[in-house]
Amino acid sequence: MLRLTLAQMRRSLGRLTAAGIAIVLGTAFVAATLLAGNAITRTTYDAVTGSYADADLIIGGAELDDTALAAAREVPGVDVIDPQWQTYVEVVGRDGRLYTAAKAKATHPDLEAETLTEGALPSDAEEIALPASLAELVGVGLGDTVTTQLEIWTPDPDDAEGGSVSTMREDLEVTGLLDDGSSAFIGIGGAAVADESLVRSWMEALDTEGLGVTTGQALVALTPGTDLRSAQEALRESVGGASVQTVDEAAEQITAELTGSSMVFTAIVLGFAAVALLVAGLVITNTFQVLVAQRTRTLALLRCVGAGRKQLRRSVMIEATLLGVAASAVGLVLGTAVVQGALSVLGRTAVDVPLPETVTITPVVVLVPMLVGTAVTLLAAMSPARAATRVSALAALRPAENPQVSTRSGRLRAWFSGLLVVGGFGLLALGMVLATNVDLLLGLAAGVLGGAASFVGLMIAAVFWVPWLIRGLARLLSRGGPAATLAGANSVRNPRRTASTSSALLVGVTLVAMMSTGAASTRHSLNEALDEQYPVDVQVETVGNGMSYPALPAAVTSEVRAVEEVRAIAETTRTMVTVLDDLDGAMTTLETFEATAIDPALAREVLRTPDYVAELDDASVVVATSLATNLGIEDGQELTLTPATDEQGASPGAEVTLTVATTEMPSWGLMVTDQTMSRLDPAAPVSGLWLGVTDLDDANAVVSAVDVAAAASDVGLSTAGAAIERGFYQEVIDTLLAVVVGLLGVAVVIALVGVANTLSLSVIERRRESATLRALGLSRRQLRATLAVEGLLVAAVGALAGSLLGVVYGWAGSQTLLGEISAVGLTVPWRDLGLVLLVALAAGLLASVLPGRSAARTPPVQALGVE
Fold it and tell me: How confident is the model at residue 404 (pLDDT cuts 50, 70, 90)?
């Protein structure tokens, strides 16, 4: 039987190729995912171990003070204890200012993890070494002077909520430039290196509560010849609750923590690989069903000459095993080549990330794709293998009839699928209600279960509704001539195979449409929420110290005005005021707030809701309704504003009494006119801009201009607004959508391979029929058109049904996840759905080209001679 099986495979090699391609793509997906996960883990491990330099042991897991460090130094065999002192400071250069981590220079050269690219490490408290990228951004080089600034909050001992802010400044010479590649990757990079005494002084200045300076980690170098495990145990006893690990142990722990998200990522991507393999399984099932049907007479003859049912079943399974192993091996090689190519490209471009040069082949990477690919092939071939042994020998020798769904099995399938569909959609609706009104996780679980059940039900019932839809589309196309009429009839001759082929495409399209609809609905809901949260498109303000605000540099205003997408600009002035109210005949201080002054006419141009400042004038103060409720004040009430005093008790302006005008504007501050501000604080400079943009979707240019201006500014700037938040969320959503659609694209490609495979097998099955039609006058062009329309029908039904289901599932998912926040309206991504339909139709048409050419080229006489 083995030789016979191999002979049959050689004869059917062309027919097995498409099934093999499906398995190759699926297993390549699995292999590439596993290899990418290994690369992430290996990169993180290398980066972590690199940050430990030549240390022998790592002390961590607890805050270490000077006492604990001194005790560790007394342990026999310990040569050096290097505490990792670190804090954050602002570095000010010629061209800008940036916050960065600052760490102490290692106490021993062997424990210094930073790599110098130029210059030298600092030798005293008046020098500093900067990461090369940071030095470039602030505009300094070797030998230049930078200023480090540290904002220190000192609490007032007489006032629990009071205190003062002071600035600690140091002028330091840049003596070295650092390579911050690997350390940046693990989240502690971009760190400046300063003398230990200087870093300690910064940390002590920040310790305003007198708790003492501590570090979370210390590197240990042992004297030569010291036993590592003995020293490790002794250090554990000396430092109490802190952990003492070898470099490998610490690196493995941190790698596990840092790559926890990558493991989740790997699991998610493997989920998409499972979808691709599911589609591949449908393609393989179709292929083996046709092969078994074509070999019915051969199998019957084998039964007549003594072959048993088990032998025939074993023959089909051996064929599936050989196909699965061979295709899985090719997929493994393909996936490895793709990841290796990606590492080679990224290695030349992503210089800041210490990527491995080659992939790491492990037993898991080899065995999992091979076993999964082979198992999927065997499972897909089991049903055709059983079918090969169910027909008796004499029955198989009769001409084969078109497969029909039996009445009994049809009734069972209809009832079972109907229960799944009705129950599933009911559970999906219940999930939306539960997530909104009861519990999000409970609703999400119900929604996922309901969606899965309803989709499985539709897949089981596909043998009923897919042919029905194809017949309907075929009737619409029947006016196109005999080719369209023949295509419609041929498409439903084998409803099981047609349903299976269309279902394979249905899976991929449904998931793509679901993600697109979910993303569109989520984006729409977020936009509405942002419109309610932010009154203006973009808000640029200088960062103050809580009492005053520096002037906005003129260069920033000029840079923003030059942006074409900015339609309106309003300058704002801010100061701190104390709110006084006449309660029970006595003036009472309610609270201190930020007051913002703006020209009412310009405010109406930039605000997304101009009615917010409809009542703003020189005699009124606009107060957000939420703030008014919190303070207990009402619309029309008189309110007295007094300029907040500085540290010396001096007031910058005069007291002003205004009439309250409440508004729904989302703000916890007060809004007055420029004239009122001139009385409250005449010296207050313009410290902000409110910007209106022409289109929120095209706000990237505005944000980029603000970022450029902020980098070149000598004062700190903050930016906020609907455009910025919308741009951020939109970029995240679009990126995730692109990744997900790209991953699901593999399943769609496999499904389209299945369409081509089905058409090819259909051509082979109907060679005699096609020859008869040719003999009766059907032209080659009409024969090719018949197959083209057939491919279009199968692809169109899968794409249309998948799009409809995807829209329903996508909206239901968005409502389940976001319904608790706000109602999610149905947003149909017509452009994305149209693109999916266009691609599916084009692929269906393309899939018919080779089968059509094959059918048209075969002479009728030769085809009529085929048994």
Answer: very low
User: Which among 775, 751, 805 has a CA at the least distance from the CA of 279?
Assistant: 751
CA–chain centroid gap for 570, Å, is 36
Q: Are 376 and 23 in contact (CB under 8 A)?
A: yes
d(C-alpha 707, C-alpha 541), whole Å: 12
Query: Hey, what are 113's tokens?
Result: 């993890």
Output the CA–CA distances (angstroms, integers) from residue 500 to 82, 282, 287, 405, in the order listed.
66, 6, 11, 14
Residue 277 to residue 30: CA distance in whole angstroms: 9
User: Cα(603)–Cα(571) distance, rounded to whole angstroms?
Assistant: 9
Q: How far apart are CA 606 and CA 173, in angstroms?
A: 45
Smallest CA-to-CA distance from 637 within 583, 576, 577 is with 583
Contact between 373 and 327 under an 8 Å Cβ cutoff? The reply is yes
**What is the Cα–Cα distance from 258 to 137, expressed in whole angstroms?**
28
Residue 724 CB coordination number (10 Å) = 22
User: Is the full-model pTM beyond 0.85?
Assistant: no
115-119 vs 145-156, strand pairing mode: unpaired
Closest CA to 786 of 509, 462, 493, 508: 493
Burial bucket for residue 254 (CB in 10 Å: 0-12, 13-18, 19+): buried
CA distance readout (Å), 188 to 149, 165, 244, 717:
20, 27, 21, 24
The maximal CA–CA distance of the chain, rounded, in angstroms, is: 114
Whether residue 791 contacts residue 845, with contact meaning beta carbons closer than 8 Å, is answered with yes
Query: Which two three-digit tokens encode residue 275?
Result: 């979808």
Residue 113: Cβ-neighbour burial (10 angstroms; 0-12, 13-18, 19+): buried
Q: At what angle are helices 228-239 and 66-73 packed, to 10 degrees?
A: 150
Q: Say if CB 80 and CB 220 are below 8 A apart.
A: yes
222 with 231: CB under 8 angstroms?
A: yes
Q: What beta strand segments (E) does 65-122 contain?
A: 78-83, 86-92, 97-104, 115-119
DSSP summary character for residue 536: B
Mean pLDDT across the chain: 77
E strand or H helix at 660: strand 656-663
Residue 611 and residue 616: Cα distance in Å, rounded? 10
Say what the pLDDT of residue 44 is: 67
Strand pairing report for 192-194 and 243-246: unpaired
In this predicted structure, the answer to whether residue 411 has a pLDDT above a threshold of 80 is: no
List Cα–Cα distances, 619 to 326, 344, 500, 671, 848, in angstroms.
Answer: 84, 68, 75, 12, 77
Closest CA to 245 of 58, 383, 478: 58
DSSP β-bridge partners for residue 89: 100
Buried b (16+ CB within 10 A) or exposed e, 421-432: beebbebbebbb
CA distance 194 to 196: 6
**CA 113 remoteness from chain centre:** 32
Question: CA–CA separation, 483 vs 495, rounded Å?
Answer: 20
Which of the 8 DSSP states describes residue 110? G
Q: Nearest Cα to 801, choosing from 544, 511, 405, 509?
A: 509
SS3 541: strand
**Angle 774-780-782 (CA atoms, 0-180°, nearest 5)?**
90
The pLDDT confidence band at residue 566, using thresholds 50, 70 and 90, is confident
For residues 691 and 712, what is the distance between their CA atoms, to the nearest angstrom? 20
End-to-end Cα distance, the chain? 23
Task: Tell me how far apart the alpha carbons of residues 334 and 695 are, in angstroms, rounded to a whole number.
Answer: 44
| Section 601-618 average pLDDT | 86
DSSP H or E segment with residue 264? helix 260-294
* 608 within 8 A of 568, measured Cβ to Cβ: no
pLDDT in tens, 430-478: 888 888 788 777 887 888 888 888 888 888 888 788 888 888 887 777 6
For residue 562, what are its two tokens? Answer: 């030059």
